[in-house]
Structures are given as structure tokens and as C-alpha cells.
Design goal:
220 residues; alpha/beta; TIM Barrel; two-stranded antiparallel ribbon; 8 helices; 33% helix
Length: 220
């Protein structure tokens, strides 16, 4: 049986990081400056959290920067082992990152607004380690690059998974009461969750425990 990996995003403190790790999270998401959305923290706090995360937990830096030079600077400052590029950047940016910071794993976010998202599989696949499917709207007046709390069309996501030669994480509106259906429908390598595990903005241990139980209840 394939075990669906779990990434808990929008980690806002060392205490939240430890809660997520104790629950069994495979990865933590640390959100840098964004034009909109929840969970952003300053880079110094990201550094502090990263220093306390033991291997083999992955530390994902969510960056809205769009050039290889700026993304590289952000990654090096924060000391993470994985970068999650939340904009639909030019594939050449990911290609450059592979050369400049080859030790850092690269994840490209694809915002699933319609079936055009499927066209991006092979544009990026040669240059990234994984994809993450989310429900943002990069072209909105104020760009939405994640943390929307909305689901998207899981049929498109399932087709993306079928076409992708690289692992795919599913994000967007996941919570304890729908995560099993999402895993069953999309069959992703991993799932990513932010607002669905929070109560009044704080990571909720009961929701975390329920989410883990439900996400692993689906045999793949």
C-alpha cells in the first residue's frame, strides 16, 4: 500500500512545528511574503523554525519570488531543504535553480483553474522534483497564490497525476471531513493542508489527529 505523505503548511511557530512533527508530518510549509493569503511569517522566524526541524522532515519554503536569483537568495537565507515556487514562473527559472542550488529540492505549484493546468505538466517536469496542485488565481487583481481554503476540480487534478512523471501533492480546501475523498479521487503522492487544521488561526491538535487518521484510511 502507498502511504500518502502529509505536508502541514502555514507553520507559524516552533511549537506548531513540533506539534506537526509529533503527529507524523512528512513536511512542513513555511510561508514567506505573499500578496495575499494566510500564514506568512518573516524570514528570520523561518530560519529559527528550520534549525529545530530534525531529518528526515522536509522544510518547504513557499516563495512568491519569480527570478532564479531572488529565489536562490531566499532559499539560502532561510536554510530550507525544499523550495515551493508558488507562481507560474518560466520553466527556465526552475532549470536555473537546478544548477545554482542543486541540493535543494524543487516543487512547482500549479494553480488548477481549468484544464489548461494540464498543459504545464511537461513544461516543468524535467526541472522539478515534484508538483503541488492548488486553488489559487495568479491572474486575479490581487494574486492568490495559495491558502484560499477552496477546493478545485479534482477530476483535473487526477488527470494531472496520471500524466505527471513526477510526484504530485494535492492542496486546496482539504480538511478532516473531505481528505479521504480527495485521496481516493486524485491518488496523489502527498497532500498539503493549511487552514483546514486551524481553529481561530491556530493549529488544532484534534483536527490534526483526525486529518491524519482520515487521510491514511484510504488504501491505494
Amino acid at each position: 500500500m502507498h502511504r500518502t505523505r502529509i505536508k502541514i503548511c502555514c507553520i507559524s511557530s516552533t511549537d506548531e512545528a513540533q506539534l506537526a512533527i509529533a503527529a507524523g508530518a512528512d513536511a512542513l510549509g513555511l510561508v514567506g511574503d505573499m500578496p495575499s493569503g494566510p500564514g506568512t511569517i518573516d524570514d528570520d522566524l523561518i530560519c529559527e523554525i528550520v534549525r529545530q526541524v530534525p531529518p528526515p522532515i522536509a522544510t518547504f519554503l513557499l516563495t512568491s519570488r519569480t527570478t532564479a536569483a531572488d529565489i536562490t537568495d531566499h532559499v539560502r537565507y532561510c536554510g530550507v531543504n525544499t523550495v515551493q515556487v508558488v507562481n507560474h514562473v518560466e520553466p527556465s527559472v526552475q532549470e536555473s535553480l537546478a544548477t545554482v542550488v542543486p541540493h535543494v529540492r524543487r516543487v512547482q505549484v500549479i494553480h488548477v483553474e481549468d484544464e489548461s493546468a494540464l498543459e504545464l505538466v511537461h513544461e516543468y517536469a524535467s526541472f522539478v522534483h515534484a508538483f503541488l496542485l492548488d486553488s489559487g488565481r495568479p491572474s486575479a487583481a490581487i494574486a492568490e497564490l495559495g491558502g484560499t481554503g477552496r477546493t478545485h476540480d479534482w477530476q483535473i487534478s487526477a488527470e494531472f497525476v496520471r500524466r505527471s512523471p513526477k510526484p504530485v501533492f494535492l492542496a486546496g480546501g482539504l480538511k478532516p471531513n473531505n481528505v479521504a475523498d480527495a485521496v481516493r479521487a486524485v491518488r496523489p503522492f502527498g497532500i498539503d493542508v493549511c487552514s483546514g487544521l486551524r481553529t481561530n488561526g491556530t493549529l488544532d491538535p484534534e483536527k490534526v489527529a483526525s486529518f491524519f487518521t482520515q487521510s491514511q484510511s484510504v488504501g491505494l
